Amino acid sequence: MPYDHRKTVRRTLVLALAATGCCAVLAGCATSQASPPGGRPRDVPGHPGRERGAVPSAVRLSSAVPGPSRSSAPARGSGSLAGRTIVIDPGHNSGNFRHSAEINKKVDIGTNRKECDTTGTSTNAGYTEAAFTLDVSHRLRELLTARGAEVVLTHDGERPWGPCIDERARIGNAARADAVVSVHADGSAVGNRGFHVILPAKVRAGTADTTKIVGPSRTLGERIADRFAHATGTSPANYIGDGTGLDVRNDLGGLNLSTVPKVFVECGNMRDPKDARLLTSAAWRQKAAQGLADGIATYLKG
Ligand SMILES: [Zn+2]
Prior knowledge:
By secondary structure, the chain is α/β, with parallel strands linked by helices. It has a single domain (69-301), classed as Aminopeptidase. It contains eight helices and 13 strands. The strands form four sheets. Strands 3-7-4-8-13-9-12 form a seven-stranded mixed β-sheet, with helices on both faces. Strand 10 and strand 11 form a beta hairpin. Helix 3 (129-146) crosses helix 8 and helix 5 (214-232) crosses helix 8. It is globular. It starts with 12 loop residues before the first helix and ends with a helix. Zinc ion binds at residues 47-48, 91-92, 120, 129, 184.
């Protein structure tokens, strides 16, 4: 079904600076260490987003920053998800490889400071996680808008890098989303296979307080894990979560800073050849999106 893809929204510089406090709104950041476009990205042990070193901050300002992308069904007000707002967060950004300085700048995630964003992983043949997450997110958006939901993407490939993880969280919060799903694929060892859903731990530190979202996020994650397995025919991860398809983390800014129910979904392991065959299949990605949509819908229907 066609959807109304609104153009990105320009924000004022003042608002953007206040909102992000990071290089997301700054141009002229030094760029270094970036892999060439299309090249094999750096592997990210412990994906997503363990700590790496800080980098120099930027000095010049950009006058406009793309905002989140909103879409809703043409027949608004109808469908099983009418009146619901769902934020989809495509993990990483294909441009991150060319913006090492910007994405390595640290942001506050409540429990500590962590790099703005990461490049993500890829298959051994070079299919990037960022390309995967955006593709699945587009498929998921179409399925959800067809059911009447309003859908917001944290980015839609329109910005050169990012958003930073704290901004990704704020987009979900500002939308007062009924559910937020951050789409990822893992970069683990060969033989490690399957999907898992990452749930927010109870965190109260600095600006982070997940107290109110731990419960509903777990329910959201359980629904997604169940429906994802059903739709894709794949199994919960054999290397994390003890076969439940669920993991809990307190080190992800995108979860720590969320005030609305949110989970990350690691759809498979890009570094495992068998999983990679699935992840690189458009037909499988459609099944993955279907599983995510079904899980979200099941959760929202109570
Ligand atoms: Zn990722």
